[in-house]
Write the structure tokens for this entry.
Amino acid sequence: MRQPRELFHARKIDMKEKTILVVEDDPDQMELTLITLENISSGGKIAAVRDGAEALDYLFGTGSYQSRDTSVQPDVIFLDIKLRKLSGLEVLKRIRSNRRTAMIPVVMLTSSCEEEDILSAYKNGANSFVRKSVDFQEFTDKLRALHTYWLSVNIGAPVP
């Protein structure tokens, strides 16, 4: 007769408050994204910035974010490609070039379906490329899937 197996006990995962940084310059898209994320998030934090320069200020604690504790970074960034002041691709390059932010997952969440944008995003270190949908339910479903994967399923890299 076989002996019962010992149950596997997974190590405890730090359940700190998870943060999403949304970088979107279209006010309507931003509102839709925030409303959707607020409805599907369970206790997480959502930070929102409206252009590429503000995204870098947030991440690196400069400008109006100079008092932000940059030792605490977002768990995932939802980044549009077409942004004012500084493009999403330029923001992505800066994120990947800094050791403090290089490992943060970046999802390009954009209305672009240009092959050049897709290739550029992946060449510059995007973790995912997701096309926004004009259909509300489809957009909500995509955000729910992204939220679930990046904040519940994925195990992020250790903080340097």
The first helix runs from residue 27 to 40.
